[in-house]
Amino acid sequence: xxxxxxxxxxxxxxxxxxxxxxxxxxxxxxxxxxxxxxxxxxxxxxxxxxxxxxxxxxxxxxxxxxxxxxxxxxxxxxxxxxxxxxxxxxxxxxxxxxxxxxxxxxxxxxxxxxxxxxxxxxxxxxxxxxxxxxxxxxxxxxxxxxxxxxxxxxxxxxxxxxxxxxxxxxxxxxxxxxxxxxxxxxxxxxxxxxxxxxxxxxxxxxxxxxxxxxxxxxxxxxxxxxxxxxxxxxxxxxxxxxxxxxxxxxxxxxxxxxxxxxxxxxxx
Length: 268
What we know:
Elements: E1 26-29, E2 38-41, E3 59-64, H1 65-71, E4 81-86, E5 90-91, H2 97-102, E6 111-115, H3 130-137, E7 139-143, E8 149-156, E9 166-167, E10 171-172, H4 175-183, E11 188-189, H5 193-197, E12 202-206, E13 225-229, E14 243-248, H6 251-254
Antiparallel strand pairs: 1-8, 2-3, 3-4, 5-6, 6-7, 7-8, 9-14, 10-14, 11-12, 12-13, 13-14
């Protein structure tokens, strides 16, 4: 999968294989739990809970300073909180026990969201920590049948641990899909330096089976994936490098061993 996964001294933010490949990643549980997020639905008044999936255009969340002080070190933080955004919620499509274990998905989890990098993450002291990775690079949040958060995970380089999340080779991206997702503010700026160096500027988590009503072509990502845009701005049109990577669940991939001392964060 490239030198990034075989060099012990490789800087943690380097990803020389991108954009020809993405990952694999170690999936690591974070210390954040149910009471650490205050939820506000995008387009709805009030807050405190996730909307029904049919009404879910993404949710904003707020984390109080007291939570940050418990989980990470804040460097001169004068803000009372940090704010982030979840992707639209979707049912979990990973069913096999071995795949769920590798992805750190709890048995009671029924739906999930992707948490984008939050505003103000750069003043975190320990950006190599698991909590710093979640805030600075993003992570998955899993919910039970009552929409309670039961686990949060982040993606780190698979050094010292078995890699748990694999992706396909890059697949061609359609400009029509960009317009639809941009209207919902689904694209966010890339924060992983190795991906930035590869030229990508924006990324989006694709829901499992993401479908675009007004497009003849559809992405092939039954378990979700990440899309990357190489434009300087979302209004710049298209770039031939625009692509997406679909989550892969093949047993042959899950059984592959990528273990080095670590793990380490991907943003820094």
